[in-house]
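Tokens for chain A. Residues wanted.
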């Protein structure tokens, strides 16, 4: 891949190889700043699909997308995702690249991210490993039912009724680098609430047609974004957008 835009301005094309050196350079580019950052990471095709013929985003994966995705997961304190996406995709051990774990580059300093699953039913797939740090986030009036159905310890089930409460609950536990990975309705709720700070969109150089939803699907809103970095690869290009403050949108 080549970095062609950095900090919002064109730069001389810089090669980033799919190895440890390239991963370290990419980690520096995407490093979390001070305070809390809520970042979304999604992959789509050039015709806007976020899932392939098998209904999963995994079928769209490619070396460029996987490289960027592995680095981003290695930087996050918490991977936040909706339960339906967890049931569809593989979320067993979302650690990111191993060569970026020691020393930790996560704001909270942990060697692996918390997996935070938003659910109203408590239906968690058996693929979620019990030794992985996992939280369930449920509407407050569903906490008891979610705890009972999931069998999760009560101290790992969080009640939150809005995107703002979800973020506040994660930050209270020391997770200020938060990466949302879907699904589209989850991203839509956080975007409409003005709580997405960054959108990292990988565009796979394929078309698939079909009825796939958009990367962000939810309440109507008018969010304005600035392009902060752009990577061009053989199989995909990866754009990083930062939300403009409301008074500049």
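Reply:
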């Amino acid at each position: 891949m080549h970095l062609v835009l950095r900090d919002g301005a064109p730069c001389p094309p810089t090669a980033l190889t799919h190895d440890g050196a390239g991963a370290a350079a990419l980690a520096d580019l995407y490093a979390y700043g001070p305070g809390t950052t809520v970042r979304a990471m999604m992959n789509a095709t050039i015709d806007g699909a976020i899932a392939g013929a098998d209904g999963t985003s995994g079928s769209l994966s490619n070396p460029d997308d996987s490289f960027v995705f592995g680095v981003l997961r290695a930087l996050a304190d918490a991977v936040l995702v909706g339960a339906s996406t967890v049931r569809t995709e593989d979320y067993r051990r979302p650690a990111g690249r191993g060569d970026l774990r020691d020393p930790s580059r996560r704001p909270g300093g942990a060697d692996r991210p918390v997996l935070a699953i938003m659910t109203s039913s408590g239906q968690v797939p058996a693929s979620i490993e019990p030794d992985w740090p996992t939280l369930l986030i449920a509407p407050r009036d569903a906490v008891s039912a979610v705890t009972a159905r999931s069998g999760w310890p009560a101290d790992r089930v969080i009640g939150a009724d809005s995107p703002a409460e979800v973020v506040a609950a994660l930050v209270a536990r020391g997770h200020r680098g938060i990466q949302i990975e879907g699904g589209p309705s989850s991203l839509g709720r956080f975007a409409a609430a003005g709580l997405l700070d960054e959108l990292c969109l990988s565009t796979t150089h394929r078309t698939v047609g079909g009825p796939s939803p958009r990367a962000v699907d939810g309440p109507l809103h008018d969010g304005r974004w600035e392009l902060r970095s752009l990577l061009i690869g053989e199989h995909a290009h990866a754009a990083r957008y930062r939300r403009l403050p409301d008074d500049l949108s």
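The chain has one domain: 2-248. Residues 63-73 form the longest helix (11 residues).
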